[in-house]
Amino acid sequence: MTTADVLAPVVPVDEEARATPAWRTVLNTIEGRIGLAVGALMLLLIAFGRFFAPYSPNELGVGPRTQGPSAEHVFGTDSLGRDVLSRFLSGGDMILLVPLLSVVLAFLVGGGLGMFGGYRRGRADLVITRTFDLLLTLPPLLIVLVIIAGIGSSTAVLVVTAALVFVPRVGRLLRGATQAVVTNDYVAAAQARGERTAAIILREVLPNIAASAIAEFALRLTYAIIFVATLNFLGLGAQPPNPNWGLMVAEGRTYIAISPWATLLPAAGIAALSIATNLIADALTRHIARDTARGTVTL
Amino acid sequence: MTTALQIDGLSVGYARADGSVNLVVKDVDLALEPGTILGLAGESGCGKSTSALAAVGYRSPGSRIVGGRSLLDGVDLLALPLAELRSLWARRIAYVAQNAATALNPALPIGRQLAQPLVRHLGLRGEELRARQLELLEQVGLPDPPGALARYPHQFSGGQQQRIAIAIALSCRPRVLILDEPTTGLDVTTQARISALLRTLVSETGVATLYVSHDLALLGTIADRMAVMYGGEIVEASSARAVTRRPRHPYSQALLGAVPSAHRPRAVAGIPGRPPSSVSLDACAFAPRCAHVVPDCTLARPELREIEADHVARCVRAEELAPQPNQGTVLAARTAAAPEPLLEVIDVCCEYRHRRTSHVVVRGVSLAVHPGETVGVVGESGSGKSTLLRAIVGLHAPSAGSIRLRGEELAPTAVKRPRAVRRELQIVFQNAESSLNPRHAVGDLVGRPVRLFRDDVARAEEPRAVAELLEAVKLPRSVANRYPAELSGGQKQRVALARAFAARPSLLLCDEVTSSLDVSVQATVLELLAELALQLDTAVVFVSHDLAVVRTIATRALVVRDGEVCEQGETERLFLAPSHPYTQELLSSIPEPAATSAA
Amino acid sequence: MRPGSSGVAVARQVGLMLLTLLAISVVTFVATNTKSPEGIARSVLGRTVSQEQVAAYVRQQGLDRPLPQRYATWLGDFVRGDWGVSAVTQRPVRDDILPRLVRTLILSMIALAVAVPVSIAVGVYMARSAGTWKDLSLLIGSVVVAGMPEFVIGIGLLLLFAVTLGWLPVDSAALTFGTPVEQLKAYVLPSLTLVLAIVPYIARFARGAAREAFGAPYVQAAVLRGLTRRRVIWDHAMRNAAAPLVNVIAINLLWLLSGVIVVENVFAFPGIGQALVAGIGNADTITVQAIALVMGAMFVAISLIADLLVVYFNPRLKGAR
Fold first, then answer.
1. What is this structure's pTM?
2. C93-149+197-313 maps to which CATH number?
3. What residues of chain A lie within 8 A of the CB of C13, using their CB?
4. DSSP state, residue C318
5. Contact criterion met (CB below 8 Å) for B224 and B37
């Protein structure tokens, strides 16, 4: 056996150390699969459901008022004689769109600030953190209710106030993740090479926090859907006659004993959506936790 | 003298997902006699900690005792039910885990933690209990025992925490004491004191002790008997003196040859290859890495045979080989070529600011490095040596003083320095886990400095340059496509070296680069470093807490304490005749592995 | 333990809390007073009203003064107990809010008293049987329940227990008109909804904290000292889990107060949450301002207690060394 052979052995592939990409894990776990399946179903329903509605969602008196399921109206009618199924198939878009927009906005603003503060440290970080802390002490629902009471509600108001609620939470999480990464010597090595802040954040930091960021996105989306649906339920979001699911639940609640589907169908729709995102978020989070313990976090 | 703990044929494995068992320890025989210390030596992954824990009867999640007995005064601990084991643990047999800081509950005052076994096993109460607690704390040399009882673990230093853990272990006067790397991670001087304490306690109390450690030098000084483990088996056992002075097994010889010495100039010889990840059942475990291997070695698993009186070894060629540690080639042979200094550090001070307070870690340090020489910087943790290095490379702006490269003053932060300067100064960090971005492939990691600094390499030629660098650090080219997580600690550190040399620096700064590595891997990396530095004519500043390593590799050395230079000069003169009391204290704290070519 | 540093920490916490309360009051006041003085007057008096009446109202209510001054007056009045008169009901706001506040507090306390012990017990149980199907099914169950909005949980419970089974009332009218037994029954569904809304979060966290604590090296060390399993779990492991657990419970507590607003609306429960939403719907700004400030004070008080508890449980924060 020559020295060369001994010194340069074949590097065995450590199967355990090869990390599983995130999407693969989501598909591997039961909850991930259920979440994806239900989520995909709801997405299709929200996007294309309206084309399958048997009646026009806002047309009054297509059927008798407040009646339970029947042959013409599979899920019954509401107090104004509108078909429940048709309204359901047409009313889901804001329940998904508004939360999605607000979370994206929160990530851009909060995430950007959090990453910057976590990397830079010093005075900038102090200011950013204190702002986050102050915003976090404010009770979310209360503040948003009060703001809407004053300014009135519209899609833009909902998106911005929800985003405002999430900015400090997302910011804090991404700041923490950035801080954890920044203590590593590979960041110091890049600094010693004289690389610039932006380059370091993009090349060295971002790939290492991407996994946490995506898990947090899914989780935040869950909360956003719940939050926005709740606002709509309380009558502070879309206004009648919009077939918004949250609004439908509130309207149908008064005659729940007579025509239960008027409330149950939209409620189930909201729940299905938020549960789906929660299952996906959970699958992602557990994947990250396991890989962090092993030291092989990857996207 | 009856044997306190007799371990016969212990075999331990871990259960795999499919139900089969991965054997990690096989046929371990150990005998612990009262009042003596048996050292169990080996590198990480050899199974020594697993054996120690299994011998106590503790079943870690997923582990399986595949065979053997552990007889405590005749009773087999491995066959006892948990309830009975609980009554024996701490009372008759005590275990001290590796990292004391984590073995103490951060939420309870130490008085309570000390009291719990005393109350449970001996039923002590009130005055009697308190008296015993104070007695124990005094015995382990903890200052202010009454006050200490009410304090929490985090209020003590690392060394003190370890003393407390030892006090808890000895509280019920057990027959047997098992220590798993009790001084690893502590400062050299603290290590010396704790080891001395243990030696004293063992003689005073007559407890039979098993001392597990990777530090052969240490074991050579405090253990009475010694056993060496490799690949899950005992490969050699005898008195400590015999094993360290006249090792019979090629692995022991190679391991002792890899241990650097602070007390005489010795070269180190690394052991190529990697240790096995599981027990080999049908061949000699060390054969793939052995310099004396013959075809017979791979035919069957060698038996543990008596080579001479009271000295066993697991090798078919044990009688033929000369019983001495391996010799390496001398590393520290370079001296300064030119009188003009390459780097000058003049009266540099560094501090850390936190809110209103500032903490000075480097006070007026001056040093000069000449082209082609290797300078060692020695100090314990907190001495400021790492901060000094970071200041030189531009990661930490000094609060006073200046740093000059070839006479030109350097900007305090790297980003403000010209590219040429950044190319000339490269740094390698201690922990390769943390210095290699896990999301970048090895090829990208090594290629980055090539892209940034090597004007002589065109874009298209970069892969070739990377492959050459990997070869220079004795890694196969295919590693370029791998990710750091797939490599071992030693391999990662070699990648870090390749990355540092990629820029063809004139000065390489090494920050404790071998401190996290096993002794044999450390030796390999040191050999590599010395070879490459010589080849590429790179000066090196080597920071370490390990005097032995510095002695092995540096021609000049500085001793640093609390941010100040105590002493500096030629390595040989410094070590042979240290003038500063601190240097003398450091040197006397270091255990010396038994003399080598004394014969 | 140096008392000085604990005292400083407490004082800082209290200061921060007061600052928060101030912030809440500012946001509330500014948000509810975005309309011009005339606009406010008209919304109270109605459309068919003359310019002079509007001007007279503005003068009378002091709406022509600058905003900061009005804010100071409002805050001053509030602290002294004068919460204003609702323009919608024409009654002093305080008389309406106080009984509602009591009911909301009772509801929250019941929910908390049930949710916390149940969550911890479930969490520890899950940790001890980690990896088994018991743990897995509870995990998925908790993800599903946690993923549902509170009002959906409420509607679901309503459909099951009130509409289908008929065991419990459909709304909370009993609280105003019914017998004590009926009143008690009216508390059940709303508190159950709140409990179900919180338990998954705390139980999940307790599970994680317990698992981490079980795997800690000092737990292994404690076992090797021959201590009993019960002592190891509760004295060693859970003690270290206590601090983060208190933190999570505190966060969920705040969230519970938000949830109360929603739940009250699902069940038409006559608490301050329902009054708040109703007030917003009726543009009853005086009532909305008062309730917002009261709830804000509740939030802040609970945050303070939680922070103090966290410090108590964490020896490192007690300022030693």
1. 0.79
2. 1.10.3720.10
3. none
4. G
5. yes
